[in-house]
Amino acid sequence: LLKQKANSSNASLSACQTDTKKKHPLKAGSSQEIPALNGNGMKAKSPDQRDNGSAKDSPPLAKPKSKSVAADKNVNGTKSDGKGCKEKKKSGNILKEKIDIKHKRRKAEEHAEQQPKEAEIWFDDVDPKDIEAAIGPEAAKIARRNLGLETDPSEQSVEQVLVKEKASEGLTRAVAMDCEMVGVGPKGEDSIVARVSIVNQFGKCIYDKYVKPTEEVTDYRTAVSGIRPENINTGEDFKTVQKEVADILNGRILVGHALRNDLKVLFLDHPKKKIRDTQRYKPFRQRVKNGRPSLKLLCERLLNVQVQTSEHCSIQDAQAAMRLYTLEKKKWEAAVKNKSNNKNCK
């Protein structure tokens, strides 16, 4: 009985092993065909082959980069923690500055080429204002520099140059006079007095009156004289002005520019030895290289101020003549005295 049980048990074990072989026909370590989804089969490697395979068959996988590391790189390969943007912006600003400097340098060179060269401005007896109108401000600047008229940055006003502040306003030993005139006659070519202004030695105005016309005015010459009909229609009578002026000039040194014309329209005379005419003073003519210099030219070259820039003012013209006289007063008076002594000796 025991032997029968043992045989029965062995038979069961053999049957079991046979079933197992049928279900798993492949041995361990052999390749196995695995059906793929698309119907193609592929061989699966054994665990030993997968672990011990060569790097060629199974290259090592690269370690995935963390998001934080990837985010730290920008397109240009620089760190994007803010420093890269700043550096890029800074390099852009430097490039822009270099372009601006080149542009400014090129503009300056073009401007310099357009400006007249100093050697080309050779005018001697031409008013810088005329040069400015004909050629331009740079040419006029060069001409003024050549004439010694270059303006000082702290240039004083005309009145500050011509009038002595806090000085006496009364009569002085020398006075300066200037007249404004209007035209009469068919073409306005003849002149009559329209305004008379007198200043003392310090440039203070001591007399200024408009004169009522004695004839019909055909040309007011407003652009030069500054006279308008309303100024002289209510002016002082000519005879009154003539007498008042004569009283002021009596026994005094009379200063002015082209005084012959002023005395002529007033029908007055004055001793020649007491006349100081800035147009006829020889040192002035030599200095400006002009035989008959204008008051405007003398003021520009000798006083470094501009007068008669628009309508003339008889007060300002008288002040300018007086300032030119006081500039040379000692030499001028010494020359007059020497001339008088020489005549007496003869």
From TrEMBL:
Can you name a GO cellular component term?
Answer: nucleolus
**Molecular functions per Gene Ontology:** 3'-5' exonuclease activity; nucleic acid binding
Q: Where is this region: Disordered?
A: 1-120
Which InterPro entries does this UniProt record tie to the protein? REX4_DEDDh_dom (IPR037431), REXO1/3/4-like (IPR047021), Ribonucl_H (IPR013520), RNaseH-like_sf (IPR012337), RNaseH_sf (IPR036397)
Span of domain Exonuclease: 173-334
Record keywords, A-Z: Exonuclease, Hydrolase, Nuclease, Nucleus
UniProt superkingdom: Eukaryota
Q: Which SUPFAM superfamilies match?
A: Ribonuclease H-like (SSF53098)
- In which residue ranges is the amino acid composition biased (Basic and acidic residues)? 45-54, 107-120
Gene Ontology terms describing biological process = DNA catabolic process; rRNA processing
Q: Report biased composition (Polar residues) as residue ranges.
A: 1-18
Q: Per its UniProt record, what Pfam families does this chain match?
A: RNase_T
Q: According to its UniProt record, where is this protein located? A: Nucleus
PANTHER family of this UniProt entry?
A: RNA EXONUCLEASE 4, RNA EXONUCLEASE REXO1 / RECO3 FAMILY MEMBER-RELATED
User: Of which family is this protein a member?
Assistant: Belongs to the REXO4 family.
The protein in question is named RNA exonuclease 4
- What organism, scientifically named, is this protein from? Pterocles gutturalis (yellow-throated sandgrouse)
